[in-house]
Each structure stands twice: as C-alpha cells, then as structure tokens.
Amino acid sequence: MTFFKRKNNERNDPVLHIGSSLTAVCTISAELEITARSLYWTLNGKRLARNTYKVLSPTESSVTLHQLNGSLQRSGDNLVCHRSNGEVLAGSCLYVGSPPEKPVNLTCWSRNTKDLSCRWSPGSQGETFINTKYILKYKLKWYGKEKDCEEYTGQLYICYVPRDLAIFTPYEVWVEASNQLGSATSDVITLDILDVVTTDPPPDVLVSRVGDLEDQLSVRWGSPPALKDYLFQAKYQIRYRVEESDEWKVIDDAGNQTSCRLAGLRAGTVYFVQVRCNPIGIYGSKKAGIWSDWSHSTAASTPGIDRSHIGSCDLKPSEHNSTLRKELKQFFGWMRKHSYGCTDVSIKLYDQWRVWLQKAQKTHDQVSKDKMHLHMRHISRQQIITVGTHDIGPVQKKKQKDAFCGFM
To answer: Where does this protein have coiled-coil stretches (predicted)?
Structure first.
C-alpha cells in the first residue's frame, strides 16, 4: 500500500498557510520489489531537487518543502511520488494560501425599487490562492432574520436580490468571506432601497449640428424608461471628446432637461458624446441617488469653415475711408464668425459681407410677401365695419430652445 502522510499523521490533502513547511512520506509495500532509494518526487510536474528528499528506510522516502508559495491553481498543487521509470506511486494536492481579509467597497443599487444588486471587493491583499466563498447577507434593520443572496450573476463579487424587498424601511447588508484557513466579515452598511435607485443609461441620445454654427452641437436624449411611473427629478451629466483623443470633458450638471447645447467646440471636428442619469427624490427620498452607466457613444461633427471665398486680409492705405461706414459694427461681428485667422480687413472681404447681407434681406422680404393679408368686413343693416389687416404666418409648434450645457 502506498500513501502520503504528514508529520501529524493526517492523510487528507493538506491546506497550508503561505510560508509554511511540509514534510510528506511515501511508503511502498514489499511486494513491489523496489527500494525507497530509487524513488523521486515532482511538484506540478517539475522534478524536485534530490536534496529536498531522503530515504528513511528501504520502504520509505520523504520530501520536505519550506517557505511554500501560494498555490498556482485553485485545484491545488500536485505533489507526486514516482518510481524510477516514472510510474506514479502516490500523490496529493497541496492547498497553500491565506485566510480571507475583510471584504471592502460594498455598494448596492436598485433599478426599479423592487430589486437590489450589490458589489464588493476582496480585502486589501485580494488573492487568497485557494477557493474562497463569499456570501452576501441582508436583513431588515429593526426586525426579521438574516437572508442569503442566492443569485450570483457570474461576475466576481456581485450578487442580485430580485424580489421581496420592502421600501421606506432600512436594510442592513454585509458580506461574509470564508475558506479552509479562516473567515472575515465586511463592515455592515445600512440603506433604504429608495436611496440607492439608479437607472439604465438615457436612451435615444441624438447629437446634431446647430445650423451652420461651427462651434456648437445640440444634444438630446430620452428619459429613463424603467422609472417612467415613479415621481422623481432626473439630473443629467454629459461628457464629450474629440475623435482623436481618449480624454473626456465632463459637464457635471447639465440640469434636468433632456436637451442642451455644447458650445466652444472646434470647427470641422468629430465629437463623441455620452449622457448619464441620476434619479433624485424618488418618493421624496432626500438622498442624491446613484449615477447610471454612461450611454453608448453618439458621434457628430461640427461644420467646417469654408475658406474658398475668403479674400486677402491685407489692408491697403487707399481703402481706409471706404471701410468707415455705419455698418462696420455689424461687419466686424460677421467677420469674426466667417473669417477665422484673418487679422486685417480688406474691401474684398467687406464686399462679400454686403452680398451676404443682401441675400439675407431678400430672404426676409420673400417671407413677408408670403404672409396672408386678411381683410374682414362685417356687414350690418346700418354700417360696414372694416377690420384691420392681420399678418398670419404659418402655424408652428413652439420649440423649446436648447439651454447651453452647464448653464440654466
């Protein structure tokens, strides 16, 4: 008969603390007709140095390992005794690791006020090298027995409670960690389900240009659908970045509307935009709520600057007087918008502005002609009453202008 035994004669697979020492003994039966001197040892398939084992008797060989490191695999490290031809005579699994440390960073959230998800991190060391079991526990703070969370999502250190939760009353939540070397318990957190409600990311994010404005984009999105039946005030954040960069610029408070306008952007540039939501004050809760994940990126580009019609910006002495007209104030405003990079003024540029102004005036006049003039007359037995002329424009739904992001 062949087997391992430890110094204390235990024959189960050993579980050891990191840094421990181990002596194992391989005993062979006489009918094998081999001696202990011909045996050798391997750890995880690697042959151990001969100075780590010795012959105790013609039928016993021992191996001693010092300062053991954590197991390389959860199933344990394989320590095996072989005869000279490689045949396995005996073997055992070594489990070398650490007891768990107190779980930390326990946070919980609810997506519909009826469920609860919680996430945590293992202790500061993290890796225990052996199988460690984590159990999320919860109970009503003032009464009731503790319950175990049973639906683990497949992700490490996350558990989901889908139902049977109360609102308007606090819960205590904590995590217990245990393995063959010890156990540890996280700090207990107290929460009301209404105080930890979050949402899915805002849907239907749309980013579009604002006319021909080169430095602005309009952002619109939908309200969180999962909470449409709840009374709350949403708060939104927006972040955006240029296509060639991974650095996001965050607008911390985009207000509670579902649209706003980004300003101060670069012309002719592709921007990626994301939005997230924080439901505030569900059923009168005083807590700030929890931010949702960011929405998927939505891309749009600002209009480019058309420089094909921009003339020389050189100012000629003979043209000084011709630029001093009463429209100069309007002209300079137009030039700042349409002639980036120009630091001087020329007559050619001024003439281009005049063409633009005439086209704008022509468009305005055409719209005025298209208005209907209604003359109403009321005929009675004694008099004819002429009711004044009215300008009736097209009936349009009043559109709410986008507020600039970050400004209310």
So the answer is: none
